[in-house]
């Protein structure tokens, strides 16, 4: 019972994912594309999740700059990591689908290119985080990039409307009801997965910080440490 | 000192430092021109093909080699310089605006320097060329804004030279799209207004983000 209480979100995610997978394999196949269309039940929710994760990163970044509470920085970083993984999954699923339908894995069309670049934008964001050692500076610099990077999100989303291309525009109102329900169930399942991973990643990030502090406290003083206040200590005071 | 006076002085300082080294005019622009000369050797020297591809290649060179303008040594203030500017009470937003203006002017200089090379080597269709007086500055301002923001968050990092391009290039996508599509629109005789709107919107979004982030940016490198 204690375990269930502790892992309620993960348990819920597993149940919804199981339902979504079962539904994805049992719902009738698309008349034109056949079974290959079932990849959409992974591709579309992954893309949705990537957008959600990056919007959360932006919210976390703004909140950090306003409050300087480290919790927001952890949220921004954790969400960006998950977003990068799901952007990669969306691209991969899209490529697998494109091979039989378009005849090739990759085509130079706006949605694909802008999504690939979105992936690199947030890889850059994560690289920036790794490059800065001081936690306060890291949070500060990353927050600025987290906000600026969000400019790319509407460009990816509206790219199919702005440029005529192979990639279909939003079809949420034009597909048959059973397929739409399956798609929405997939979106719901992926959202639960995101929430569950984010929760664990936040916990891990907090533990990582505690470890960092313990290592810092255990390390011997360096010359000049008495004159220059260590930033890590400053960061902790602000938390 | 008024805000705009501060902006002017910061921009003047950056341009003065650049004028001493002439890094953009004597190093980056010839490097970009060399790239434009070498590309046909790799993709083929078919004249109609090069005429078609020329404008796109020009914008790619502007985008990728423009990073060198952003990363130029004169754009880097050391710790003592940053401290001095802070002690003088310069508004962070004025500092951001001044640095952006200087970088944008240098990117514009780079674009203008490569223009004749493009025309001479690729013979592109230049229908509607007066629009370039609007497109070139809009792209330059966008690059300047992105460069100043990315340069700000990577200041004093050991990985600055590798990290800044990774931050700037993917985010410069709307600038590249706006510029290339507007150019294509001119050649096809279509409307280029939506592409200009895209360029202006991106510039405005970056300007607002940059000004709002200028305070935290300065704090981040304290």
Commentary on this structure:
The complex is a heterodimer of chains A (239) and B (222). Chain A has 239 residues and is an all-alpha fold. Chain A is 77% helix and 0% strand. Chain A is built from nine helices and no strands. In chain A, helix 2 runs antiparallel to helix 8 (177-218), helix 3 packs across helix 6 (135-149) and helix 5 (110-131) runs antiparallel to helix 6 (135-149). By secondary structure, chain B is mostly helical. In chain B, helix 5 (92-122) crosses helix 6 and helix 6 (132-154) packs parallel to helix 9 (193-220). The mean pLDDT of chain B is 89. Chain B starts with a helix and ends with a helix. Chain B has helices spanning 3-21, 23-43, 47-70, 79-87, 92-122, 132-154, 160-171, 173-188, 193-220. Classes of the chains: A mainly alpha (239), B mainly alpha (222). Chain A binds chain B through residues 65, 110, 113-114, 117-118, 120-121, 123-125, 127-128, 131-132, 137, 140-145, 147-149, 151-152, 155, 162, and chain B through 146, 149-150, 152-154, 157-159, 163, 166-167, 169-171, 173-174, 177, 194, 202, 205-206, 209-210, 213, 216-217, 219-221.
Provide a short characterization of the protein structure.
The complex is a heterodimer of chains A (239) and B (222). Chain A is an all-alpha fold.
Strand and helix order of chain B: HHHHHHHHH
Largest sheet of chain B: none
Number of beta strands of chain A:
0
Largest sheet of chain A: none
Mean pLDDT of chain A: 84
Q: Kindly provide the radius of gyration of chain A, computed on alpha-carbon positions and rounded to a whole number of angstroms.
A: 21 Å
Sum up the overall morphology of chain B in one term: globular
Q: Approximately how much beta-strand content do the residues of chain A carry? A: under 5%
- What shape does the CA trace of chain A take? globular
N→C terminal distance of chain B: 23 Å
Number of helical regions of chain B: 9
> Span from first to last CA of chain A?
33 Å
Number of strands of chain B: 0
Q: Tell me the structural class of chain A.
A: mainly alpha
Q: Which stretches of chain B are low in confidence, meaning pLDDT under 50 for 5 or more residues running?
A: none
Q: Helical content of chain A, roughly?
A: over 70%
């Amino acid at each position: 019972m204690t375990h269930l209480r502790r892992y309620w979100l993960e348990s819920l995610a597993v149940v919804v994912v199981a339902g979504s997978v079962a539904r994805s394999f049992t719902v009738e196949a698309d008349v034109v594309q056949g079974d290959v269309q079932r990849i959409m039940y992974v591709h579309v929710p992954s893309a949705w999740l990537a957008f959600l994760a990056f919007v959360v990163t932006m919210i976390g970044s703004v909140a950090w700059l306003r409050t300087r509470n480290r919790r927001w920085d952890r949220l921004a970083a954790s969400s960006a990591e998950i977003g990068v993984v799901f952007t990669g999954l969306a691209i991969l699923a899209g490529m697998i689908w494109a091979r039989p339908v378009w005849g090739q894995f990759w085509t130079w069309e706006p949605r694909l290119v802008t999504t690939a670049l979105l992936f690199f934008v947030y890889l850059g964001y994560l690289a920036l985080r790794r490059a800065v050692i001081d936690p306060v500076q890291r949070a500060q610099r990353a927050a600025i990039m987290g906000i600026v990077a969000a400019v790319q999100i509407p460009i990816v989303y509206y790219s199919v409307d702005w440029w005529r291309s192979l990639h279909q525009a939003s079809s949420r109102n034009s597909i048959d009801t059973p397929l739409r329900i399956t798609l929405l169930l997939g979106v719901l399942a992926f959202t639960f997965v995101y929430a569950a991973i984010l929760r664990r990643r936040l916990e891990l990030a907090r533990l990582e910080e505690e470890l960092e502090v313990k290592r810092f406290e255990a390390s011997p003083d360096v010359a000049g440490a008495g004159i220059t206040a260590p930033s890590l200590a400053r960061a902790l005071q602000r938390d | 000192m008024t805000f705009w006076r501060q902006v002017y002085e910061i921009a003047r300082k950056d341009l003065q430092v650049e004028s001493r080294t002439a890094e953009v005019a004597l190093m980056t622009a010839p490097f970009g021109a060399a790239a434009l000369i070498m590309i046909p050797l790799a993709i083929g020297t078919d004249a109609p093909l090069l005429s078609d591809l020329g404008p796109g290649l020009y914008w790619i060179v502007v985008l990728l080699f423009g990073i060198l303008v952003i990363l130029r040594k004169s754009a880097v203030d050391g710790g003592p310089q940053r401290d001095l500017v802070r002690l003088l009470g310069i508004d962070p937003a004025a500092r951001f605006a001044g640095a952006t203006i200087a970088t944008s002017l240098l990117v514009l200089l780079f674009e203008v320097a490569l223009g004749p090379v493009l025309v001479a080597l690729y013979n592109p269709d230049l229908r509607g060329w007066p629009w370039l007086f609007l497109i070139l500055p809009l792209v330059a301002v966008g690059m300047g804004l992105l460069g100043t923001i990315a340069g700000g968050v990577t200041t004093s990092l050991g990985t600055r030279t590798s990290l800044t391009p990774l931050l700037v290039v993917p985010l410069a996508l709307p600038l590249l799209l706006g510029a290339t599509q507007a150019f294509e629109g001119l050649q096809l005789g279509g409307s280029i207004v939506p592409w200009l709107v895209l360029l202006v919107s991106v510039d405005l979004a970056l300007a607002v983000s940059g000004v709002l982030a200028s305070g935290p940016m300065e704090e981040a490198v304290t």
